[in-house]
Structure formats: structure tokens, C-alpha cells
Amino acid sequence: MKLLKFGGTSLANAKKFLCVADIIEKKAKSDQIAVVLSAPAKITNYLVTIIENDINNDEMLEKIDLAENIFIKLIKDIKKIEPCFLYKKTKEVIEKEFNKLKKIVNGIVLIKQCPESIQPIIISRGEILSVVIMKNILKSKSYDVTILNPVKNLLSTGSYLDSTVDIHESKNRIKKIKINQKNIILMAGFIAGNKKEELVVLGRNGSDYSAAVLACCLNANSCEIWTDVDGVFTSDPRIVSNACLLESISYQEAMELSYFGAKVLHPRTIEPIAHFQIPCIIKNTNNINSKGTLICQKNSSEENFLKGVTYLENIAMFTMSGSCLKDSGRIISRIFTVLSRERIKVILITQSSSENKINFCTLEKSIDVILLILKKEFLLEMKEGLLNHLNIVKNLSILSVIGSNIIYKNNIASKIFSSLGCSKINIIAIAQGSSEHTISIVIKKENILQAIKNVHNTLFIKKKIINAFLIGIGGVGKALLKQILKQKKFLDQKNIKIKFRIIANSQKLLFLKNPSNLNNWEDDFKISKEKFNLKILNKLLQRNYHENSVILDCTSDELLSKQYINFISHGFHVITSNKKANTDSLKYYNEIKNTALQKNKKFLYETNVGAGLPVISTLQNLLNTGDSLIRFKGVLSGSLSFIFGKLEEGISLSEATKEAKKLGFTEPNPSDDLSGIDVARKILILAREIGYKIELKDIEIESILPEKFKKYQNTEEFFLKLKELDLSFSNRINKARNLGNVLRFVGTIEKEGKCSVKIEEINKKNPLYKVKNGENALTFYTKYYQPIPLVLRGYGAGNDVTASGVFSDLLRIIL
Ligand code: ADP
Ligand code: ASP
Ligand code: MG
């Protein structure tokens, strides 16, 4: 004997009913078959609304008519596909059942309430009709069918809406029924009967449980649960798109998964089949050939001990506190005795003895009953002030990670916490150890879907995800996107995913539909109508719970740089090629660094000095490992490196500057380069990195240009005036040349933090001697690197090298 159960998702329309009939037919060829059916998808929800809303005759009857029409349409459609289908006969039963419901509704309206004993009759009509329809489909195919009445045969105890089956007694009853071996057995799921032979139901989603019970009663050798997914996944595949199918799991693991929210199985399904050792297979009606998931008595291998991430919603947490909890053992036993007497399910408990507090979580729908029970039980303690008011927090969810003996495994809890931490999701309570196979965490309901995705990714996919918010799509921003797109395959191989949540310039914003796909961002950006400003950005950031979220500032905007503390406080890492923040006041600089430290976020700015050259990280490495700086000297400006190289070749200052501008090496107004201020800013950043507490004004700057050049904003006028400096410069160059030296524009940091930027005469032995043509060079004379310094040399400007520096900062977030 084989038991097959088909859920509502497998019976959603005429085509699916007939597909189920085909599966039954196929299976019946090799074995006797018993089939348990749910109501067609959504029907139960719909019937529940009849009794949940206010009692209103017209509204209730209207709903019943609508439900009836759904069934009539369903059988009409079946008839269209399967002309032999016993349509008329089925229609008569449907009408009879709905007339019965209408009579019940009239009664409800008369007594102005719907007694609990009546509710199961209404909400289980879907199951009754599924069986009638399937019986007539099978009959039209000439199969003999035996219908088992669950009210008569499955004896249950408990409440009308959430009963438990007495398997021993039910088995005895079913044993007595004579069933022809050739017949296909059909039974409505979800339904059972109490001692008084009243119809009761087994809790929402209870058809799985009906199937397990019937499998035990019939001594079936397997129980197949047919649904709309390929089996049990490591998380709900409707929410986590990369959830993995589990080939097989143990009864214990299946029990934990379903108890903590894997809706694919009703939580009570496993216990009976585990007891009778019946293997259970979860199969997909939409993909008959998939192997499914086998649930049986087996232990997981060591390396595959993790099984899933699940969640429960609509959770409330009660906190009881007060001095009487000092004697916690006695009080706790009273709390849970009264709750269990009223059949209240307590999902999770945490206790803090030192604070005289106990927390427990239940479903929100039980709040009123619990309040009533506890207030009654602890009336005296509350009056005497020994117990404080009950505190209730609503709108919570419980995220659970399930794995065999999970609590004994290293690292899992810490990985969960860090994954939630990375997405700034606060943990409200934790329970580990109530079962050895589950770690449960209470968080706000609004965070649950993101939390599930993140924790699943961390534990199962082992993919490292970065969520980037790019602001600035000038040369550097664009080059960065190009480089990331080009590296996609490489990053995939390394299990790294960079998702761009937004791409923005100073005016508008693009939300990427597929954040990992950068193929069409430029076209999409062009047509995007979303406005961008700091207010909009901040609002957006507040609502963001993606893990490893990073602001990428590829602008030179001062206002944006003033927001970094704000970004970091909202849980973002900040990566910037913009020098404004690091050259702002020392106070602001320190504030950013401290906030980043406090919030455990990264603030990276490798490209602030020397573009793509690994300057900041090298310096940090030296200092972190105990080296100390004696002196720093560097050529830090690409344009000045070019210009001074040309001077050496005998070209005049004005001509060399013109050429540099033509080649795009200078700022739009070359006086910005020649003033030396940009080099001074880089020196300031390096000096602060070393630990010197200085401001920009503390740096001695020898500008190439006399003071009066500030007036010449017009480029033509500027070049005209620059000619006036040519002679004095060529004299200076010649003087140096006669001594075998060259001139370089050099930034210096001395041991005590004294900083300067000025033109220096450099001799052949100096590493800066050969630095020209736009190259940068940085020489670190340190305790370890002397007398020959550590030298970093290479192009220190340009979109591609700067973008690659930002890119490597981005990867430092996860590596
Ligand atoms: P049925 O109508 O067949 O009983 P349900 O909707 O009750 O179907 O259960 C199947 C659904 O369970 C799936 O569509 C899926 O969204 C959900 N689900 C939740 N957790 C899991 C999981 N871990 N593995 C598979 N499915 C899951
Ligand atoms: N139809 C019932 C429900 O939706 C039982 C089931 O589908 O398992 O809860
Ligand atoms: Mg179900």
C-alpha cells in the first residue's frame, strides 16, 4: 500500500486535478493506493473569511455563492478537457454541500455568533468537494473507489480547530473496514471526528498530518506528499531564490524544519510516520520526474549537518518581571502549566535569572487569552507588587537555523550573528539548546525576509555579497562599473557577488531591477525618472537592511563628504575617492574614524593618495607591524610630474603646462595644480594616517605661482602671465642641471610631523630623480626601510587606475 497526498497547490485548477488523476492512475498500476486530498488552493482561506469577519447575512451568503461558483467553474473546465467526466452528478453534490452551508449561515445569523463546533464544518468543505470531484474523475476512468470518512474513522482529541488524532484507535476502526484490494482509497484531508462524532479539523495545513495518520493506519510502505516544489529546500524557495533542494533528511530534522516554519509540511506530520518508520517522500506535481526529498531514519553526514533556515511570523513576546521571579522555578512552572492547560503553544523561552525576568514567545493571535489566564493566575502577586505589568512586544518573527546537533558545532551561531549584524538587524532574543538541532532568533517582523536571505546565503551558498550604492558616475564611477562588469566571471568563480542597489549622479538615481546585472545600466539610467538629493538618499539608506552595504563616493562633492558619519551610523561602509572628508578639519576626520570603529564599519580611501597605488594600505601595514616613519618624500601630482619632466628636457614652464593640459593631465584650470594645494592635501592625508594631528594650514606650501596668479581665472590670461615665469624657471633648471640634479615638486613629512610641499633639487641617487611623465613616486624612510627607502612608483592619476583602487577597496569589505 502506498499513500499519496495532494495539497491545494496540486489541485488549483481543472488541469491540475486531471494531472493528479494521472499520477494516481500510474501509481495504481503497481500497488494499492490511498489518496488524501486538500481543498483546491486558496479555498480554505476564502471559507475562513466567512467566519472571521462580522456576521452579516448578505455578505456571508454572497461569499458562499462565490465559492460555489469557483467549484462549478472547476468542474465545467474538467468536463471540457475530459468529456466523460460525471459532471451532472458532481454538480448536484456541490449544490447540496453549498445549500447545507447556506442553512448553517442562516443559523449563525439567527444566533448572532458562529460556535466553535460549527466552524470546522464550514472551513472543511473544500476537502469534501475535492474528494467528490476526484472520485468522479476516477470513476469516469472506470476505477473503483472507496471513500473513507475521516469523521467516522479518525478519532481525535483536542479543540475543534486544532485536533490531534488517536492513531491507535483510528487504526482499529480502519482495520474493520472491508476494502477491495483493487480499489483506490480516497479520503478528505484536514478533517477528523471527535468522540461525539462531530467534525473537527487538524489545524491549518493539516492535510499533511491526515496523510501521515492514514499511512500509519493502513500500514502503508510509503507516504508521498505531492506539492508545488521539488521537495524540502534549505529555505522557502519562494523567498530564497537560491535555496538548495535537500535529497534526504531525517525524521528529526524534518520535524524541526516544519515546527519552525517550513510550511511544506504540517508540524505534526512527521511524528506518526517516524514512529511507524514509514519513509516519506516530498514530490512536485509540476515536475513529476524530479526525485524529491526522502524523509527517513538516517543520520546526516558530518559535512552536511546544516539543513535549513526557516521562519515563523506574527509572533508576540511576553516579558514577565518582578521580585517573585527570584523563586523562578516555581513561578515558571505555574506560568507554563496554566498556558498548557489552555493549549497555548509556547514557541520559545528565554530567562534571565539575575534580572528576575522571563520572556516567552507565542503566536500573536493568542495574546488576549494569555493575558486573561496570566492575570487570573497571578492576581495576588500583581496586587502585592511582586510581579510587574506584563510587557508584550508584537510584530515579531522567529528565524531558526536547523541542523543535526547544531548547537555543538563551532561557528554557526557566530556566522548567524555576523550575517544579521552586517545587515544591521537587531536581535531581540536568542534560544539555543531547547532542541539540540535548532538555533532560534527573535527579530522584528519587518526584517525577517531580508534576514532569511542573508543568513541562508551565509550558511548555505557561502557567497560573499556586497551591496553597493554608487554616487558619482563621472570618469571614475563609469570606469569602476566597467571593470566590475568585466570581472563578473572571475568574481563568480570566487563566490563573490557585487550588487548595485543604486547608481546616482548629482541629479538622478537608478534603482537597478537586477542589482547584479550591469549590462544595461547606462540605458536604464538615461530613462530613469527618480530624483536624487541627499534627503532622498538618507531616507533610502534608513530603509536598507542589505548585508555588507557600501556607499561608494566617486564624486568630489563636499556636501556628500559631510554625510559620511551619517552613512556609517546607518550601518554602511564608506569607500571614497573623494578627498574632501579626509582633508576637512581634524575634528571631523577623527569623528569619522571613531564612528567607523564604534559601528564596526570600514572607511576606505585608498585612492585619496596615488590613485590605484597601494599607498594607504602599505602605510597601515608598516605601522600596524611596529615600523615607524623617519621621513616621507614623494612626487604626488601626475601633472607636476609631467611638467617637471618636460622642464628637464628644456621645454619652458608655460609650454610644458600647456602640453600637460592638452593631454588631460591637469585640472580644468592648471593653476589648481601649480598652486601645490592638491599635493598638500595628499600630504595631509598621509600625515594624519601616520598619526600627526595636523590641519591643512599647518603644511608649508611653496606654490609654483606667485600670489597674484590667483586673479587669473581665465585660462588664456593665465597662460599669458605664466610665460613671465619661464625665464626664472629655466635659470633654476639650468643651475640644477650644472650640478647633475633635477627639479621635482616634492611633498615631505618629517619625523615630528612637520610637513611641506615645495620644489626641490634632487640628485641622481634619489629615487625621485627618474620620476616624470606623469608618474608618482612615494618614498618611505622608516625604522625598517633605511637607508634605502620603501618606494611605491607608478601612475597616480587617471580614471582606470583610480577605479581599480576603488574596486580593490570594495573587495576589502569581504576579504
Ligand atoms: P500544499 O498546498 O501542497 O500543501 P503548501 O503551500 O502548504 O502546499 O506548501 C508548499 C510550500 O511550502 C511551497 O510552495 C514553499 O513556498 C513552502 N515552503 C516553505 N518552506 C519550505 C522549504 N524549506 N522547502 C520547500 N518548500 C517550503
Ligand atoms: N486546506 C487546509 C488548509 O488550507 C488544509 C491543507 O491544505 O492542508 O489549511
Ligand atoms: Mg500544505
Mean pLDDT: 93
Helix content: 40-55%
How many helices?
A: 30
Q: How far apart are the first and last residues' alpha carbons, in Å?
A: 55 Å
| Global shape | elongated
How many domain units?
4
Give me the CATH superfamily of the largest domain.
Answer: Acetylglutamate kinase-like
CATH topology of the largest domain: Carbamate kinase
Weakly predicted, low-confidence segments: none
Secondary structure class reads: alpha/beta
The share of residues in extended strands comes to 15-25%
Q: Write down the CATH class of the largest domain.
A: Alpha Beta
Level-2 CATH architecture of the largest domain: 3-Layer(aba) Sandwich
- Measured on Cα atoms, how large is the radius of gyration? 37 Å
Count of β-strands? 31
Sheet with the most strands? 8 strands, mixed
Key features of this structure:
seven-stranded mixed sheet, single chain, Rossmann fold, Carbamate kinase, binds magnesium ion, eight-stranded mixed sheet, VC0802-like, binds aspartic acid, 815 residues, 30 helices, alpha/beta, elongated
What does this structure look like?
The protein is of the alpha/beta class. The chain has 30 helices and 31 strands. It folds into four domains: 2-228, Carbamate kinase (3-Layer(aba) Sandwich); 307-459, VC0802-like (2-Layer Sandwich); 464-611, Rossmann fold; 615-797, 2-Layer Sandwich (Dihydrodipicolinate Reductase, domain 2), CATH 3.30.360.10. It has an eight-stranded mixed β-sheet, with helices on both faces. The protein has a seven-stranded mixed β-sheet with strand order 22-21-20-19-23-24-25. The protein has a six-stranded antiparallel β-sheet with strand order 14-15-13-16-18-17. The longest helix is centred in the N-terminal third of the chain and has 25 residues, at 57-81. The chain is elongated. The model has no long low-confidence stretch (mean pLDDT 93). It binds adenosine-5'-diphosphate, aspartic acid and magnesium ion. The site of adenosine-5'-diphosphate has 19 residues, from loops.
